[in-house]
TrEMBL record:
SUPFAM superfamilies: C-terminal effector domain of the bipartite response regulators, CheY-like. The keyword Cell inner membrane does not apply. This is Response regulator. The modification 4-aspartylphosphate is found at residue 54.
Length: 217
C-alpha cells in the first residue's frame, strides 16, 4: 500500500481528495492535517510514502512544510496540490525538493497516477500545470524555450527521447516498457540527462522538456 499524508486547510477539499485516492486500491490516506505544522508532526509520526500538501495553509504553508519533511524524512516524497494562480511558488517548491505538482481540480486518474509516480521515486508534473507555468513566463518564454532547445541539443537522440517521457511523468519502469529497454539502462539514461542538463531532479528536467518542445501532450 502507498501510505499518504494529506494536508489542506479546507475540510471539503481533503474529503474530495481522500475519496479520489480511495478509488486507488493501492493507496491509503493514513493521516490528515489542516496546516503545515500539523503536517510535519503527522509526517514524523506516520512516516508516509507521500506527503500531499496544499500550498496555501495558515500558520506554516505547504512549501515550508514540504521543505522540512524532505529534510527530515528522506523516505517520504512530497507532492504539492496547486491551482493555476500559484505559479510563483513552483520554483521554490522545486528547489525545496518537491517531486510532484497535482491540480486540485484535475482529472481524478491524474491525481492517482501522480501519487503513484512520486511514491515510486519518479516525478509527476501535471501536464496542465506545466503548460500553464511555461505560458506564464510571458516575455521570457521565447528566451527560455531557445535556451532549453540549446541545452537539449547536446543530448543524444535517445537521451532526448527519455527526457520527453520524463516530461510526461513516466517512471523508470514505464519508460523501460515504452522504449523496450531494461530498467537499469533507463536509470542510467535519466541520471546522465539530469547531469548534462544541470538540474536537481526529474521535475526540473520535465520543465526543460516542456520548454524544449519534447513533450507530446
Amino acid at each position: 500500500m502507498i501510505r499518504v499524508l494529506l494536508a489542506d486547510d479546507e475540510a471539503m477539499i481533503r474529503a474530495g481528495v481522500r475519496a479520489i485516492l480511495g478509488a486507488g486500491e493501492d493507496i491509503e490516506v493514513v493521516a490528515e492535517a489542516g496546516d503545515g505544522r500539523e503536517a510535519i508532526s503527522l509526517a514524523q509520526a506516520h512516516r508516509p510514502d507521500v506527503a500531499l500538501l496544499d500550498i496555501r495553509m495558515p500558520g506554516l504553508d505547504g512549501l515550508a512544510a514540504g521543505e522540512e519533511i524532505v529534510r527530515t524524512l528522506p523516505g517520504t516524497a512530497v507532492a504539492m496540490l496547486t491551482t493555476f494562480s500559484e505559479d510563483a511558488y513552483v520554483a521554490r517548491a522545486l528547489s525545496g525538493g518537491a517531486t510532484g505538482f497535482l491540480l486540485k481540480s484535475g482529472d481524478p486518474h491524474e491525481l492517482i497516477a501522480g501519487v503513484r509516480a512520486v511514491a515510486g521515486g519518479a516525478a509527476f508534473l501535471s501536464p496542465k500545470v506545466a503548460r500553464h507555468v511555461i505560458d506564464g513566463y510571458g516575455a521570457q518564454r521565447t528566451v527560455r524555450s531557445t535556451d532549453a532547445r540549446t541545452r537539449t541539443a547536446a543530448l543524444t537522440p535517445r537521451e532526448r527521447e527519455v527526457l520527453g517521457l520524463v516530461g510526461e511523468g513516466l517512471s523508470n519502469p514505464e519508460i523501460a516498457a515504452r522504449l523496450h529497454l531494461v530498467e537499469g539502462t533507463v536509470k542510467a539514461y535519466v541520471s546522465a540527462v539530469l547531469d548534462r542538463l544541470g538540474v536537481k531532479n526529474r521535475v526540473q528536467a520535465a520543465i526543460v522538456a516542456y520548454e524544449a518542445g519534447l513533450v507530446r501532450h
